[in-house]
Specification:
Mean pLDDT: 82
CATH topology of one domain: ABC transporter transmembrane region fold
Low-confidence stretches: 1-28, 606-613
Bound molecules: adenosine-5'-diphosphate, magnesium ion
Number of helices: 22
Strand order of the largest sheet: 6-7-8-3-9-10
Helix content: 55-70%
Distance between the termini: 76 Å
Largest sheet: 6 strands, mixed
Radius of gyration: 36 Å
Strand content: 5-15%
CATH superfamily of one domain: ABC transporter type 1, transmembrane domain
Length: 613
Amino acid sequence: MPFVGKQTVVLTITVHMQPSTPTPLPATEPPSIRQRLLRLKPYFVLQKWVWALAMGATLLGALTEPLIPALFQPLLDNGFAENKLPLWSVPVAVIGLFTLRGLAHYVAQYALARVTNDGMEKLRQDLFAKLVRADLSLFGRQSASALSNTVVYEVQVGASQLITALIGLTRDGFTLLALVGYLMWLNWQLTLVVFTVAPGLSWIMKVLSRRLYNLTKESQKATDNLAYVVEENVLAHRMVRLHGAQAQQIGRFNALGQKLRRLALKSTAASAAMTPLTQIMAAIALSLVLTIALVQSRDAASGATVGSFVAFITAMLMLIAPIKRLADVANPITRGLAALERGLALMHDAPEESQGEHQVQRAQGALAWQNVSVQFNPDGEPALAHIDLTVQPGETVALVGTSGAGKTTLIQLLPRFLNPTDGQVLLDGVPLAQWQLGSLRQQLAMVSQDVVMLNDSLATNVSLGSAPDHAKVQQCLEAANLWAHVQTLPQGMDTPLGHNANQLSGGQRQRLAIARALYKDAPILILDEATSALDNESERLVQDALQKLMQGRTTLIVAHRLSTIEHADRVIVMEHGRIVEQGAPAELLKRGGAYSRLHHRGEWVNEASAEAR
Ligand SMILES: Nc1ncnc2c1ncn2[C@@H]1O[C@H](COP(=O)(O)OP(=O)(O)O)[C@@H](O)[C@H]1O
Ligand SMILES: [Mg+2]
């Protein structure tokens, strides 16, 4: 039987997890397991008394363990051999002992669940709050499935594995100490013999745990990749069918699935080897002890009784269970830590959006781009090159140019979805970086090509960010020419929209987005091909609504429709990230430059040829 004190086991784990294994955080100095646990402390030590309860109950449970073999000694020596034990004492002792153990176990289990779930909830809340405030670069680095995996799944699995393992470590450690103490008291020479197998045992655990840790990190990555393929196939489900790409996608999924399967099997091979190897060590120790005990018992002067021998063997056999669990404890601790650290990495590596202090109730709406450049790719062409542009409050400016000219990029700078590589953008004379983001974005209403709706009621989507005022929602829906359709819906404006409002047609979704912009009533309106999904009929109706919407607001329109462009105060013509021409539409047409070339080439859809999506 291997005799490993609590210290030995803890030491083993600490040693193997410290330096050589890759840490998930890109820290220069790999943190020790203690430091790593300390980072989680704010989440899991919320209620100290619950921890105290869990620990107290665990300790009590552990202390009852040696009492079981201790009961055998008087029973055998006094009860059977000398018949001196009163009969009633047997059930009282046995039932009393197990009631106490049961109670301690119950309390410890419940307190543990409290600690785990409270901590998990707090961590999850923080992670989600971080997600909605994170700098937008996060979403370029991590896929949706990887992020949802971290926030929803990893945190849960990590927390329960880690806390269960830590409590287990405490319980089994205490039990082991109590039992070893009892064994020493019974026969210290014999107990020391048992310790001789400890080095072999700790070596086995060290090697296997390191392998498990690496396999866990790899499995995490493989799970992410698998989830990513599912995510993509959900998003592109129509395209996959249209192009008959199913077999291709199945192949892709299966290859990743098989990798995950191989990793899981390797993991099992490593952790399953732990038990038999431990047991062989136990057998070696047991045979040593039995031999020595038999030799000792031949020497009558040693004072060994049958009772004490049985108590010794029983206590020794009782060591197997906690030792086996302790041998496996590194596995859930490493897995749990690795999982939770993914959450922590999200927390620490994802910076929040930077912002300034400036805030106003309602901006005037004067916009200025000063020598603004945007470069996505260090080697490629800039998406915007040295743009200088000022827009007066209340002015309507149309941006035109071929696809890829940089119109969307120019507009995305305003809500700071993008930051300029060079130069600055100002609103009311204040650089955007000095604005408080909430206040800045409050000044902007935006309708773009791809409409995104949340899976909530129609009214909530229109009033996004505030509680819906039904009368106002109705007004906006009427103005966006969607009210007639909403009235045919079973629950009217309270109808749930479903996943990204898929039951609505492209044109209806676009009009809903226009209603949302109307509801926001912001001083600056941005329309990025907002009417591209509309058919002629609704376009004419929406055009009217848009015209009303633009009044008294600074408006930037990226449009393909001549009718929209002709209403603008000024047209900006863009090519390859530069402004090549600007002026009043009629004047530009006369001038015969880039605008008139685009115009005559029929670059834009006019009313007669517009097609509904
Ligand atoms: N997130 C991005 N990463 C890299 N390149 C981008 C990104 N967004 C836009 N671009 C590039 O910037 C250029 C301008 O794009 P965009 O502003 O969307 O054009 P437009 O709206 O005028 O059609 C294009 O060449 C496009 O490929
Ligand atoms: Mg665009």
